[in-house]
């Protein structure tokens, strides 16, 4: 999936990029998702929790746990949504399923039902 020319000519709009990254994750277009991520980096955009969660999901669906973790680790103050995204990624793809539980134990966040579901799966 090649990015349209107009997309590279304008500054990144977080909502539009979030939608496009989600579309790439849903359709399995990891290469296009990586291009979008690279465009954000090149534009010096620090992904918000919203964008970071979408990127974590993209990399998780492609079984690229290291990339998902790098995105998560770059978030200054991860929201519960970002935490859920990385915990789901870890519960699905980590060689050691207890990685998600260990990371959560050190988080200090208040879990929601998605957090608990990801932890139970791990």
From TrEMBL:
Single GO BP term: RNA modification
Domain of life from the UniProt record: Eukaryota
A GO molecular-function descriptor: RNA binding
InterPro entries assigned: PPR_At4g14850-like_plant, TPR-like_helical_dom_sf
The name this protein goes by in its record: Pentatricopeptide repeat-containing protein
Organism: Zea mays
